[in-house]
Amino acid sequence: MLVLDHEQTRDALPFEALIDTIADLFAGDCVVPVRHHHDMAVPGEADAVMLLMPAWVPGTYSGVKILNLFPDNHTRSLPTIMGNYLLSSGKTGEMLALVEGGELTARRTAATSALAARYLAREDAKTMLMVGTGRLSLNLCQAHAVTRPLERFMIWGRNHKKAEETAAEARALGLNAVAISDLASATGEADIISCATLSREPLIQGEWLRPGTHLDLVGAFKPEMRESDDEAARRSAIFVDTREGAMKEGGDIVQPIRSGVIQKSDIRAEMVDLIKGTHPGRKDPQEITLFKSVGAAVEDLAGAILAYRHATGQAKGK
What we know:
- By secondary structure, the chain is of the alpha/beta class.
- The chain folds into 2 domains: 2-104 and 298-311, ornithine cyclodeaminase, domain 1, CATH 3.30.1780.10; 120-295, NAD(P)-binding Rossmann-like Domain (Rossmann fold, 3-Layer(aba) Sandwich).
- Helix content is 36%, strand content 24%.
- The protein contains 11 helices and 14 strands.
- The strands form 2 sheets. An 8-stranded parallel beta sheet has the order 9-8-7-10-11-14-12-13, with helices on both faces. A 6-stranded mixed beta sheet has the order 1-6-5-4-3-2.
- The radius of gyration is 18 Å and the shape is globular.
């Protein structure tokens, strides 16, 4: 069985190919059961979460991701996300590969946001605001740069020193990035705003958003967590990766529905609708679009398949 560590997983998942692979699986015959989501107490610290995420394409591939999220791991200089993906043959059940789950999750999450931006961000988007300085931030900047002609990146974090470090890392990757401290002002300048935090209180205020902005909400993966306020939801054309996941787990969707600010019917489409063309996505250059991602097992399976094919010489272009 093939075993890929985090560096091998990263190298096997170039963003352009990953974005296309995720799109293909969303539009295909992938079977995605409801994932298992378990809170785990950690004495003296924030609760951890265990996720079990199965998916399969009949007769080709099947897989499951086992992922642990420990929010206080930063105090130990450890990643928040720990886990692995087990890829198997969908024809024989043979176990084919064990893929490092943290890198897979980070890259498929960023690629999914970039895929959504193909349909929701303005084609001339040039400035991106990254809210958050964790593992996902650099991935999101790189992935969004694949689908839009981004020329400038602003990085904001609660810890400005960390934001400066992240901006420096982004510059080392060839991105024109700078750390900022005024979130309201930067929100009003950005064409794409991507948030990847563990915030329980809104960070992005709807009144700050200018017409034409695309808001990409990646963090806040529990109903009690939130990265944007009610006004942002009210002003935006809302899209999600999956309705089932977003309405159950995404606080940026769950809370405004619960308070009556928006209705379930205000979710215009989910990812598969955009990919298959049953919904056109952005309809107007002045429209504010909001994409809420909580993660779907189809994205993990797509990444695991691509990583396996890439590592075994089966990927296109190899």
